[in-house]
Each structure stands twice: as structure tokens, then as C-alpha cells.
Amino acid sequence: MCETCGCGDPEIVPIEVQERILSDNDAQAGHNRSHFEGLGVLAINLMGSPGAGKTAVLEATAKAAEGRLKLGAVSGDLATDRDANRLSASGIVSATITTGSACHLDARLVHHALHHFPPGDRDVFFIENVGNLVCPAIYDLGQAANVVTLSVTEGEDKPLKYPVMFQKADLVLLTKIDLVPHLDFDLAAVRDALAHVMPEPTMLEVSAKTGEGIDAWLAWLEARRPERRSAKSAPHHHHPPEPPHEHH
Fold first, then answer.
1. What is the CATH number of the domain that holds 44?
2. Phi/psi of residue 97, each to 5°?
């Protein structure tokens, strides 16, 4: 659990402090969103449990997208830059956001990373969030869409156990689908669970190992790309002052 926000626990951080943190975050997220929209970049908040296959899916995406889409990413992790190094090796222009004890990314961290990100046109910018099915769902980062990775090794009931995450999802990527023949996993059950919590249940079955479903995932991304605008026509935004960081 985060030391800075208490992740919604009023026993750790008072409600009024949490409200201020979220309000400050939303203001910064709005600035991030204007930045992405002004450049015509599709920003995706990619969330999921540790080991759900977020990085592997992005590696497979880079392989399939070569010549079709220019990809960038920031990867949130508590302590290492291993995921960002993997993404860079796959051809995705990448950077790490090291959070320390924070179990999610916030808009301020993403904003800071953007200003230290290598220049160059990108079509899709992935924000690979910290592995967690709770806290990342609460924080707006300025993204255009939320995508949640759910591995078949996690079981069919995760959408029912962590409803907020899946309620806010625009798409669920059911990962490691190549393992289904070796598991006691019920595809119908996970579809039913998503139907109970997602306003518009949308799921793609993918395998980073075999490439199954990756083309459908790319088509989903391409359908949501905003119209690209030149840097000259993009609106200029002054950077708002960063709010004080709470420590408890």
C-alpha cells in the first residue's frame, strides 16, 4: 500500500487529503491528455497483475507493428528498469518510472517522464503501470484508454474480485491463451465475469508466445488513433506547478 495516498484507506490518509491528492492528479492528467491529443498520439494505460504478461504483450506488439506503428512506452516499476530494457530491446522507445514504495503511477510521474523522454514522433504511447489490480485503476494519467491484461493462469474470477479495475477497462487482453489446453480454465466463465462488471465487455484473446490475437490487438489500437497534428499546430501548454508530495 502506498505511503503517499493510503490507496483509499481513511485510517492511513484522511479523506480530505485523499480528495486533494486526486484533485491535483486530475489537473495534471488533463495537462497530459492535452499533450497527447495535441501531438495526435494514442496514450494507453496498460494495467494488470505482476506476471500477467504486460511487457511480453508489448514485445509481441512491437514485432507485429514494425512498419505500421511507431511505439513509445514508459514502464512503472518499484525498483528496477528491467521491463523498460526489454521494451527498448524490442524496438519500443522506452523509459523507466521507478516508484519506490508507490504501487501505482500517477499523472505527475508520467508528466515528469514525458519531459525526459527521447524526442521523436510516436503513434502509440504505452504507460505500463505497476503490477497491481487495485490502485492503478483510481488514477487518471491522461490516457485515451485503459487496457487490462488478465492471464489465464490467474483464474476466471479476477474481474469479480477486483471489479473497479475491470469497470474502468476499455479492453481486456486475456493473455497466455496458448496455455489454456494445459489448464483448468473456463473461457465462458471469464466472459461471464466480465459481463457482470464491464459496462461494455470487450476482450481479446492473445498469446505473446505464438502471436495469436496480436493482429486483432493492433487493429484495435489503429482504430483509436487520433488524427496526427504537426508540432507547429499542436497547442502550447504551460506546465502547472507540481503539487507538494505528501508523506505519511
1. 3.40.50.300
2. -115, 110
